[in-house]
Amino acid sequence: MQKNIITKLAALTLGVIFAFAGCATKNTDNADTKLGATNNAQKSAVDFYSGKISNLEFKSSLIEKIRKENLGDQIVIFKIGNESVNVGDFKNSFKAMQAQMKLLLNQTPGMEQRMVEQAKQLNISLTPDEQSKLIAMAHQRGGASLDKTLKDQNISVADFDKQVLQMGLAIKVITSTVEQSCLNQLITKCLLIDGAYQAGLAKAAYSNYVDYKGSAEYKEILKVTDITPTQLQEQIIKEGLAEAMQDRILSDVRISNKDVFDFYVQEKDRFKSEGLVHWAQIFFASPKAELKRNPSMIAYIKTADPKMTDADIAKRLEDGEVIQRKKALYDLRKALTGSDFAKLANEDTDDREAKQAKSGGDMGYMSQSELESNEVFAPISKALKAMQPNQIYPQLIETPYGWHVIKLINRPKDVVPFSEIKDGLKASLIAKSKEAIIKQWIAKQQEVKSLDVAKEFSDCLSFSG
After folding, report:
1. Which of 313, 306, 264, 311 is nearest to 288 (CA)?
2. pLDDT (tens digit per residue) in 391-401
3. Do residues 407 and 281 make contact, with C-beta atoms less than 8 angstroms apart?
4. How far apart are CA 120 and CA 239, in angstroms?
5. Cα–Cα distance measured from residue 420 to residue 147, given in angstroms and rounded to the nearest whole number
6. What would the DSSP string read from start to end of 278-317?
7. Which residue did the predictor score with more confidence, 414 or 255?
8. How far apart are CA 397 and CA 246, in angstroms?
9. Which residue ranges make up each domain of the chain?
């Protein structure tokens, strides 16, 4: 019990922040970032060194270098073919993933300890300077009342400091993991875009952009944000190219009903009652999470006032968070007092596919262990374990995506009939097959394609062999 108190107190005073590890990136945009001509000049002047993507090694923190050297957003980090990734691209990707991991660290039992254990495997440790800064920061944030709080809780300063350092080490491991994940995601996107150009898909992507350009949504984005038409065009076409290439790669994916049934028969033990749950949800998206995953969504929260500050935007986001949570609580109360859960889900859920399908928020049959092993959905799995069929969980569940009102529909006592899970099983098998095919394509491209890294980042990225 005391260990939990120490952990919570350390997290509260430390704020589960990432600044010490070089993650508190500040806005380094300058006037040049809005000038396409300057951007092109920068790209053409970059000196690169090259190697196979599969041989790329992550030597040191990119985000730390960006922060320390105050690098501008348009400085190119690497390119594949004619497709490049700059500092701004990397920062946006990093911030989005970092926010999700921060929430997971706060909410997932045991995650901090797993990160500490992983630190040993990765040979990651806190420097003496980092240790002293972390402890000083925690005590400073705790304020004058910290000593009294520790005394009241019968916690020694040494135990408190030890927990602060453990949390700091976990954060440092997460930072390294997030950086490498961001790097891999951006490389994958570049490969897809480069592949789309080579496959002759650029014309279709441009055509889709032209169609979208005539939409009210496009005009609204330009009206309420400072993004230029050229920048918006580039974003839309790149996303279209990546999606088009994935569609081309997956064009031959087929799974017949016989394939689904054969899998059901072969894996029948997986569909026994033990560990299977049939559940539904009403999902309310977090505006902050949506913005971090898709920075262009800022267009929907900015007003036409060009003087709107970052603080104004942050306030709008905070207000949005409050509204969404209130909506979730309202539906939770209605569901608990007898309102039709499926009707509430059809009308209010932010799960677009479920809303379009009018499925009543039905998530189908899922393996309890698979849910539990997924750190994002671990809180949902924990709640489902404590529920009975037809019960609605009496509290909101928060994940990195938002808030969930959940209902346990059934926990089967025998093997689930094929007729009940055929559609969901087929969709799952198709999704897994598509994921495997995309991974195979990416792996093959990494073996044959070259990555050009700007020499400015040679202290962070290198090639083996």
Report:
1. 313
2. 999 999 998 88
3. yes
4. 38
5. 59
6. EEEEEEEE-HHHHHHH-GGGGGGT--S-TT--HHHHHHHH
7. 255
8. 33
9. 2-195+451-463, 213-249, 273-414
User: 101 near 132, Cβ under 8 Å?
Assistant: no
Asked if 34 and 74 touch (Cβ cutoff 8 Å), the reply is no
- Model confidence pLDDT, tens digit, residues 97-150: 877 777 666 666 677 788 888 888 888 888 898 888 888 888 887 777 788 878
Amino acid at site 81: G
pLDDT tens digit sequence for 209-263: 898 888 888 887 777 677 788 888 888 899 899 999 999 999 888 888 899 898 8
Question: Quick one: which of 235, 252, 274, 309 has its CA closest to 430?
Answer: 252
H helices of 337-417, in order, are: 341-348, 352-357, 368-373, 378-385
C-alpha to C-alpha distance for 310 and 19, rounded to whole angstroms: 19
Q: DSSP code of 359?
A: -
For residue 391, give Cα distances in angstroms to 362, 384, 386.
14, 9, 10
| Two tokens, residue 264 | 């059901």
Q: For residue 11, give both structure tokens.
A: 């997290």
Calculate what percentage of the chain has a pLDDT beyond 90.
32
pTM of the model: 0.62
Helix axes of 157-198 and 128-142: crossing angle, nearest 10 degrees:
110
Q: Which CATH architecture is the domain 273-414 placed in?
A: Roll (3.10)
Structure tokens at 107: 């909410």
Interior/surface letters 232-268, b for 16+ CB within 10 angstroms, e for the rest: bbeebbbbbbbebbbebbeeeeebeeeebeebbeeee
Three-class SS of residue 236? Answer: helix
Count of CA atoms in the C-beta half-sphere (13 A) of 149: 16
Phi first, then psi: what are they for 451, rounded to 5°? -115, 130
The amino acid sitting at 180 is: Q
| No. of helices (H) and no. of strands (E), the chain | 19, 11
> What is the C-alpha end-to-end distance of the chain, expressed in Å?
51
